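Is this the right way to post structure tokens for a design question? Let me know if I should format differently. Anyway, here goes:
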């Protein structure tokens, strides 16, 4: 959280006041520090509780922990489309073309497979510049989900889908005035994760696989949202095993080729050699 980070014009910007005291007396001395901040719930990397757009939706402190901790996540890359159109509306075909397959059962606990679907627009690289990341105060521009896609995701994945994430200010695109995507997901108690930091080190290690998220929002009573810390846990065991296997296979094939060349050479130039 930083006062210079991008913001939505309707939200209260993050304001931070630092206070430090050096207490010195004849008997003792110590350092004391206590800061004050004022901010909208929807600043920085944050969660939109369903209550943000539904009077009957869960508030921040009501979202079940099983929807936040050790939750499965999958990233869909739409960055090429978004680079061509900064107001791109992510389409149903973008999901259909991503080979998204949801297991029926969570092999970790035998229950329903719960997951968050995250869209990578490439907007992370513009952070924290307000103009390139969000546009001007009177002309907000960034990509988001289409209303048709929101409905499709609800109809297709139902209770398996617990939330939607994106690396922009909002899951609705910047030009939206009525926020239909928020309304659709909130109606079905799906939360939103906005301003996600989808860095290269994460993207290079997930391919099209599921990984695990831990989402830690500030537990605000009656909150419509909250700044949160989000941690991705990536299992690189299978990837490392595959890399080692590939290296061993390469050297084995190299050995076979060298052996074959040697046999052919001896057969041609040393015909009397015993094999």
């Amino acid at each position: 959280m930083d006062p210079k980070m991008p913001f939505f014009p309707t939200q209260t910007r993050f304001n931070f006041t630092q206070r430090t005291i050096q207490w010195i007396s004849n008997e003792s001395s110590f350092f004391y520090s206590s800061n004050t901040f004022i901010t909208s719930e929807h600043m920085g990397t944050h969660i939109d509780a369903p209550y943000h757009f539904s009077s009957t939706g869960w508030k921040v402190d009501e979202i079940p922990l099983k929807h936040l901790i050790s939750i499965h996540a999958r990233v869909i890359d739409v960055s090429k489309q978004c680079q061509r159109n900064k107001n791109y509306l992510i389409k149903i075909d973008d999901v259909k073309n991503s080979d998204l397959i949801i297991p029926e059962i969570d092999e970790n606990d035998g229950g329903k497979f719960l997951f968050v679907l995250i869209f990578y627009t490439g907007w992370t690289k513009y952070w924290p510049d307000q103009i390139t990341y969000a546009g001007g105060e009177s002309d907000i521009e960034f990509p988001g989900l289409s209303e048709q896609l929101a409905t499709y995701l609800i109809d297709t994945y139902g209770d398996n889908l617990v939330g939607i994430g994106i690396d922009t200010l909002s899951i609705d695109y910047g030009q939206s005035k009525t926020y239909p995507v928020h309304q659709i997901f909130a109606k079905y108690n799906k939360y939103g994760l906005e301003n996600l930091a989808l860095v290269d080190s994460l993207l290079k290690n997930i391919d099209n696989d599921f990984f695990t998220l831990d989402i830690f929002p500030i537990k605000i009573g009656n909150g419509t949202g909250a700044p949160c810390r989000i941690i991705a846990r990536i299992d690189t065991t299978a990837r490392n095993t595959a890399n080692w296997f590939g290296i061993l296979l390469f050297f084995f094939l190299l050995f076979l080729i060298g052996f074959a060349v040697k046999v052919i050479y001896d057969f041609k130039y040393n015909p009397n050699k015993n094999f």
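Format looks fine. Someone answered above. Worth noting: The two ends are 73 Å apart (CA to CA). Residues 245-275 form one domain.
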